[in-house]
Amino acid sequence: MKSLIPKLFSLIVILFIFGCNGSRKDTKDSTEGKGNEVEAINKTDVWAYQGETGPKFWTRLEEGSECGGIRQSPININTFKAIAGDFDLRLSDFHYENATEVKNVINNGHTIEYEFESENNILKLAERQYILKQFHFHSPSEHTLDGVRFPLEIHMVHFEPETNSYVVLALFAKQGETSKTFRFLLDYLPIDIGESKEVSALCDFEDPLSTLKTGTLYHYEGSLTTPPCTESVSWYILKEPLGLAPEQIDRLKDLMPINNYRLAQPLNGRIVSFKTFN
Predict the structure, then answer these.
(1) Homologous superfamily of 4-277
(2) Catalytic residue among 95, 110, 155, 219
(3) What is the b/e burial string over 27-57, where b = at least 16 CB atoms within 10 angstroms of the residue's CB?
(4) Which of 18, 170, 239, 267 is most buried (CB neighbours < 10 A)?
(5) Is 110 known to be catalytic?
(6) CA–CA separation, 208 vs 37, rounded Å?
(7) pLDDT tens, 192-226?
(8) Domain assignments of the chain as residue spans, ordered by start
(9) pTM (two decimals)
(10) For the chain, how far is it from start to end, CA to CA, in angstroms?
């Protein structure tokens, strides 16, 4: 069996390793054409990361919130207690276009989010089809590895509307060499809170890390990390971090709230499993 990690990395980090081709266009309403499936990530005036609407009070902010549930995210991944296991996730479950378009970039007051134009990038898991909707950032990272927090965490969000469930692929980032694609993405920044800019950039799904032969993937069942903290998320987290230039990380951080991360939540008996591929 071919190594999963090189291909899986290529699906997640295509926008952070290889260049994309696009042009900046006029600003438009950040709420235009947005579905309910990403509503929790786009609220700008109900909750925050600090103060009277900070994480301690999220359970009170809206009816039906699951922020006080027992399967919450993020978590600290204790690598010594994680159990070697077999995932349902396979290479054959990814059905991504060879080239797909980044639709726009949004500053929703909580994070910087890039959305996709196409709904043809699909992850098939447990007989469901999860559509790749967007990716966004947290700085520093929300998940931790043995208590270590990384400078940045990237969430690739897939959604399945019938069950209102998600698959999120998470990637850590640390200081490293300059990313060509990140330079491109930063061309659309700065962006004010509530603003949306059209990107319309075509990106190729290539295999930038074809020489990578080994890697570790962690998995657990959890929730969205923002209100209403819906407990219907399958998390897949890559242990090996992506390298980004310090100035790239700093420029992104400057546009987001300070410490836009939620603290690690109790496991409450949940199992964290892992696979190391070679």
Answers:
(1) Alpha carbonic anhydrase (3.10.200.10)
(2) 110
(3) eeebeeebeebbebbbbeeebbbeeebebee
(4) 170
(5) yes
(6) 30
(7) 999 999 988 776 544 333 333 457 889 999 999 99
(8) 4-277
(9) 0.83
(10) 9
